[in-house]
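One-letter codes give the sequence; backbone shape is given numerically. An example follows:

. . .
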Amino acid sequence: MIPGMSTPSAASRFPTDQPQLPRAYVTGELRVVVLAGGLSYERDVSLRSGRRVLDALRTIGVEVELRDADNALLPSLLVDPPDAVVIALHGATGEDGSLRGVLDLCDVPYVGCDARSSRLAWDKPSAKTVLREAGIPTPDWVALPHDRFSELGAVAVLERISDRLGLPLMVKPAQGGSGLGAAVVRDAASLPAAMVGCFAYDSTALVERYVPGMDVAVSVVDLGNGPQALPAVEIVPRNGVYDYAARYTAGLTTWHAPARLSATVAAKVADTALAAHNALGLRDLSRVDLIVDGDGRPHVLEVNVSPGMTETSLLPLAVQAAGLDFGKLLGSLVARAVGRQS
């Protein structure tokens, strides 16, 4: 049990059978490469995710190795292609679709959505536009490139944002994850500094209306019977903001898996997460981050196509809450990836 995590009740367990191991694992016929590391700000987290995936797959007998996404990767894929790749890269390399496009060129199957859907989910303003068009609630927002921000006059732009969206606000990079560059702005005087901090991580800032409520994350997996939502994980950061330190430092966050929601609200949250996953054209797995407001209404904040797999990451917590074996679940996802290529 991870410190700070509540114990799931039996009634909340994921209502599916435990994934069965593909026969190829038992006979040692498959070879898998886990990609982790990269050059993004999230490299350390990615390496931790990769090692966790590596260990989990080895527990079910998979022949697996950990590789970085460097200039030796492509030649090795061409000379000795694995049966499948698991992408544990965070940040642009693992989530903007470019690596997935290269894997497609090499005819190497991989777990997760395709390049097009990955690009869409990676760009938060684009993803929010698709969600809004699909009737899925997401907080009002404006996306501001740094150049336009400067050209139009920072003071005038910030005043208009405050007038239009109100306070408090959430400021975060339009592309990126792990809470890097994100800040809650509760008064207008703090907005300029938040914008500067955001621009340190991305050339475009996403400023959205802050919705108070319960932070939850819903992991969506497809084990062969269509996408299904794992139990929602409730996130309670000690300082009230789920930033980088709160995500990856033991003791700074408490997780409740499953989230402390009524059955009605939990079902509504799961349905909203599934709708977001489907609207963006995702497959295999994703993590949908939401806020549940005081009236029990869920609002989608963002969708992650390469969820963290560390000891404090939300998808593994949801898998545990569902009563599933992490290694077997990953094995089933790998088998689906291999099957798409046959």
